[in-house]
């Protein structure tokens, strides 16, 4: 079977993203921008074509046996080791269960559908327009720029913030039950960690928590650098599989050595060098 062309991976009839002057593309961009302005989250339903979804899902399933599960079974929302200078109940020192795994970017060769879609220039241009950015760059982390999040039955990925300002995800397979994406929009800013607001969520306050139900083939934009979020426990009987594509506003951005080692179980020479950072948050 021949490889799909990049435009065949998506529902091109509904989403002609490689045609900048097409009114259908302009309408989708406007809708995404409005949703992001509202609460930092936007969804394009059934973005992937049936053939594209099947190809991406097959690639992910083939690599599920290679999934890395962190040895750390609990983490704080910043995915770091905490800070002994703060009280035990400070958000930096509150550790919550984490059990999901990741299929890393280096396991997808250049011939794979996932990698070809990730590097497809019209997709990057479309995503930049939706995000209102003049340009996006490939996230140059060779381990984590394009990964699959694996949530097996009974697993979860608890509350956390992302390293990047925004993340692009495509759900390949939903959990039969559970596995919900929940988030708290704009809980912190680049200038303020707002630890008290984080503490309230960790204490069980759901006043600002929103839940999103995604379907297989949906494309999600999420501003996860500032919005606390999690995936609830997969209470079904099969894996939840989510393709995550990361992009950056600056060239050369990669993850921190400690975070990449912890989440993905490996680092490269690139992680041993000083990295480009977009802000001064604790991570």
| CATH 4th-level superfamily | q2cbj1_9rhob like domain
- Helix residue percentage: 10-25%
How are helices and strands ordered from N to C? HHEHEEEEHHEEEEEHEEEEEH
Shape: globular
What value does the average pLDDT take? 94
CATH architecture: Sandwich
**Count of DSSP E strands?**
15
Cα(first) to Cα(last) distance is: 43 Å
Please report the first level of CATH classification, the CATH class. Mainly Beta
The CATH topology is given as Jelly Rolls
Helix tally equals 7
Number of domains: 1
The secondary structure category is alpha+beta
CA-atom Rg in angstroms: 18 Å
Q: Within the largest sheet, what's the order of strands?
A: 1-12-9-14-7-5-2
β-sheet strand percentage? 15-25%
Low-confidence stretches: none
Largest sheet: 7 strands, antiparallel
Features:
4-stranded antiparallel β-sheet; alpha+beta; Jelly Rolls; 7-stranded antiparallel β-sheet; 283 residues; globular
Concise structural overview:
The protein is α+β, with helices and mostly antiparallel strands and 283 residues long. Helices cover 24% and strands 19% of the residues.
Summarize the structure in words.
This protein is globular. The termini are far apart. It has seven helices and 15 strands. It has one domain: Sandwich (Jelly Rolls), CATH 2.60.120.620. With 283 residues, it is of the alpha+beta class. The protein has a seven-stranded antiparallel β-sheet with strand order 1-12-9-14-7-5-2. A four-stranded antiparallel β-sheet has the order 8-13-10-11, with no helix packed on it. Helix 2 (23-39) packs across helix 5. The mean pLDDT is 94.
């Amino acid at each position: 079977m021949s490889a799909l062309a990049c435009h065949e991976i998506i529902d091109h009839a509904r989403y002609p993203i490689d045609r900048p002057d097409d009114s259908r593309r302009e309408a989708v961009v406007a809708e995404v921008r409005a949703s992001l302005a509202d609460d930092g989250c936007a969804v394009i339903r059934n973005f992937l074509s049936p053939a594209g979804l099947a190809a991406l899902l097959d690639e992910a399933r083939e690599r599920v046996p290679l999934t890395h599960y962190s040895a750390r079974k609990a983490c704080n929302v910043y995915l770091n080791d905490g800070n002994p200078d703060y009280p035990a109940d400070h958000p930096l020192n509150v550790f919550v269960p984490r059990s999901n795994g990741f299929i890393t970017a280096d396991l997808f060769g250049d011939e794979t559908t996932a990698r070809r879609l990730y590097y497809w220039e019209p997709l990057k241009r479309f995503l930049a327009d939706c995000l209102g950015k003049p340009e996006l760059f490939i996230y140059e982390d060779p381990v984590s720029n394009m990964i699959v999040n694996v949530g097996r039955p009974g697993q979860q990925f608890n509350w956390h913030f992302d390293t990047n300002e925004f993340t692009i995800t495509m759900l390949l397979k939903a959990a039969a039950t559970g596995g919900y994406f929940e988030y708290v929009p704009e809980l912190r800013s680049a200038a303020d960690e707002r630890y008290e607001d984080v503490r309230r969520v960790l204490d069980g306050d759901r006043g600002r928590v929103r839940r999103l139900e995604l379907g297989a083939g949906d494309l999600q934009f999420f501003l996860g650098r500032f919005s606390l979020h999690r995936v609830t426990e997969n209470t079904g009987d099969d894996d939840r599989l989510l393709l995550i594509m990361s992009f950056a506003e600056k060239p050369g951005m990669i993850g921190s050595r400690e975070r990449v080692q912890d989440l993905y179980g490996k680092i490269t020479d690139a992680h041993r060098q000083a990295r480009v950072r977009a802000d001064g948050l604790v991570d």
